[in-house]
Amino acid sequence: MNYKSQEEYDQAMSDNAQAEADNEAELEHQRAMDEWNVEINRLTDYLYAMYGSGTGVLFGMPILKSLEEKPSMPTIKCDDKWLRFDEWKPKTKTRVICVMSKCSEDSLGIIKWHPAWRNYCFFPTIDYPTVHSDRCLLSISTFIMQLNDEHKKRTKKVV
After folding, report:
1. Rounded Cα distance, 159 and 79, in Å
2. What is d(CA 135, CA 77) in angstroms, rounded to the nearest whole number?
3. Around Cβ 37, how many Cβ atoms within 10 Å?
4. Which residues, other chains included, contact 159 with Cβ-Cβ below 8 Å and sequence gap of 6+?
5. pLDDT, position 34
6. Is residue 71 very low, low, confident or very high in pLDDT (cuts 50, 70, 90)?
7. Facing residues of 85 across strands?
8. pTM
């Protein structure tokens, strides 16, 4: 391209350099977003592997591997006026149960296998403080005892 003056040439080169810098900044931003998405996916996969679908909690919201996944009710029936026990289908050998308030639909915590104690245990949520009455704790305890009994029957070896 022919330029009439050195100023036109300098201006064109400056515009060219600015356009290249803008493109480089856009590419750097896209790389950063790609890295962020990879980290979010790694975290989601980690929570999914640790707790199963729906029971990994990030900022108070359950982590679902896909929108199609929904909880199914446990085979152990527990008719409680205030609590609901939802079983999640993680890729683990043992069951994971989400304890929910029927009134507020808030998660109070999860019941899952605790290998150190070789029993199912209740893990209260750490996202916000929860208060449990004696009746609430009795319902959770009764449910846990039923889970532990079922687990012992299932794993009992026939001689």
Report:
1. 36
2. 17
3. 10
4. none
5. 78
6. very low
7. 99
8. 0.52
Instruction: Write the burial class of residue 101 (CB in 10 Å: 0-12 exposed, 13-18 middle, 19+ buried).
Output: middle
Task: List the one residue out of 46, 84, 80, 81 whose CA is nearest residue 65.
Answer: 46
pLDDT score of 52: 53
pLDDT score of 44: 64
Q: Give a three-class secondary structure readout of 40-88.
A: HHHHHHHHHHHHCCCCEEECCEEECCCCCCCCECCCCCCCCCCEEEEEE
Alpha-carbon gap, residue 66 to 76, rounded angstroms = 26
The C-alpha atoms of residue 43 and residue 35 are separated, in whole angstroms, by 12
Q: What is the mean pLDDT of residues 93-105?
A: 87
**CA-CA distance, 123 to 115, in Å (whole number)?**
13
Q: Residue 92 has what pLDDT?
A: 77
Residue 139 · residue 131 · CB < 8 Å: no
Q: pLDDT per residue over 110-144, tens digit each? A: 999 999 999 999 999 888 888 888 999 999 999 99
The two structure tokens encoding residue 16: 């060219």
